[in-house]
Structures are given as structure tokens and as C-alpha cells.
Amino acid sequence: MRVVRSAVDEGALSVAGEAVPDAVKVERPRPGGGGDYASGVALKLAAAAGLPPRRVAEVLRQRIADQPGIALVEVSGPGFLNITLDRGGRHEVLQDILEAAIPYGYGDSLRGQSFEFADVSEERGRVVTEVVVRLLQSQGAVARIGRTGEPLPLVASPESRLSALAGVDAARWAYLRAARHDRPRTDVEGLLAQRESNALFRVRYAYSRSRALTRNALELGFEGEVGPVPDGEALLGLLSDHPGVIESAARHRAPDRLARHLEAVADELLRFQHGVLPLGDEKPSAAHRNRLALAEAAGTVLAGGLSLLGIDAPEFL
Hints:
With 317 residues, the protein is mostly helical. The chain has helices spanning 2-9, 41-49, 53-65, 93-100, 123-138, 162-166, 168-177, 188-192, 199-219, 233-251, 255-272, 286-309, and strands at residues 37-39, 70-76, 80-85, 114-118, 142-146.
């Protein structure tokens, strides 16, 4: 999505804003197709751009090829993009995450743009507006809440004081996890449940597990070290997507996109965590150090995402 947006913003593709899709579908190639992933986005943009699909695909091909972790991008058929990942160097994004820490994913794609939103008293509106402002600022925009701005269109919460019943963090998650046109979840028992059915619990628990893995590794005498993790491709892919998710959430005033992404990261980290530490008499190896670095990077992404949503990330849970 970032590649498509940059091609439009920089004039490489002349496409009206409403014709730019909200999301780009990327899927595994069909039998006989090449690469690790395929996308038909060029075919969708061709009519709006006034160009043949293969010409649109070629504009996007070079831009995708220049992205970190991409080994090869080819155009096939009427204009499909076939993408092959660089598995040897893809893990290097972990170093970027660990060095950037909480601000990983912040950028300047909206620099020079200004936004003002109305100050509202209704609880959900206030929470969502505050986070939208924070998301826009994370992408370099000037954004604030004032008296002259327009209110964000939201379906009002049936319970206007959910925070008084469920607590601030649970209420914020309920308001932000729901898309703006949907009613937020308001069952207090479900929002506070310490079990897998509660998405906020899973996200916070996954973060606390990442911190526990670091503590346990130190007790065993080793630290994380960035390197290839063959069994961590799914988690690595989600972490690589994080900057694009934040940018998309900012552009579309949609904190729910970030919340859903954090759920996906948490679920994959909880699946992956079981192989991070040595078992029994096993000695720590390079593989363990590499897996630990991946788990620590995932924890960093979860903490940063929760911070943007204004939700606490506890180290012990």
C-alpha cells in the first residue's frame, strides 16, 4: 500500500485519491505462478491511471524491488506482480526495530499536512480523536484537537462511561478495536477476562512474555542477536508490515487497523515463543539468540502499538 501511495503522491501514476484502494491484496501465487507472493493491484489501477496494466505494474515493480527484504519482482501475464523475498537479509529489519524502539514505524509521509478535529465530550469520540491525532503526528503531520475542527464520524457507544465500569485500558481497547462505523464491545466481563477469548489480554500477555523471555535468557547466560530465523517467517513478516499499518491507520483515521495488527503479532508471537529458550540440558546456540532477538522485536512492536493507542503494556501479567 505504501508503494502505491508513493507512486500516486509523486506523480508516477496519475490516479484520483478516491480510486486508490484502501488496501492492496497480496496472496500466495496460484499453481504455476512465480515468487513468494502475487498481487493484481496494477490491473485494478490501470483504468484510473489511463495506462495499460503492464505499464502500471512496471511502475510499481521497481518501487517494490527497492524495498528492504525484496529479492526480485517480476511482471507476468496481463500485469500481475510476482514478488520473491530476500530470505538472507530480511531479518535485518529486526535491527531497525530494536534500535528505533517505541517509535519504530513512525515516518514523514504526511509531513506538511495539517489537521484539526473537534473537541467532543462523548467518551468514545474523545478517545478515538485523541489516537487519530497521535497517529497523524507519528507520520509527520501537524494535528490537534480544537474548537473549529470537524468531529470524526463515529457510531456512539451504548455505554458512554465504559471506562468507569471496565477501567481505562479495557475501555480504550473496546473503542479503538471497533471500526468507526461499528458499535464497540461493551460487555464488561468479556473486556476484563484474563483468557484467550479477550484480544486485549492476548496482546498484553504476549508483550509480557517477550519481556519474560529476555529475563529468562539472561539467567541462562545469553542475549538476543539478530540473525536468520527460518521458523519465524510469519512473525517477521508481520513486524516488517508494521510501518505500513501505522501509516494506513493514520491516513484513514482508523485506529482499528493498528489494533487488529497488534492482535496478529501477539498471536504469532505466542505461537513462536515456545522454541525461543533451550529445553532441558540443551545449551544456548546461535539459533536461540536469533529467536530471542525476533521475540524481543515483536515485544517492541507490541509496546509501541499499545503506546500509540494510549494503553499500558505491563511487563508482568
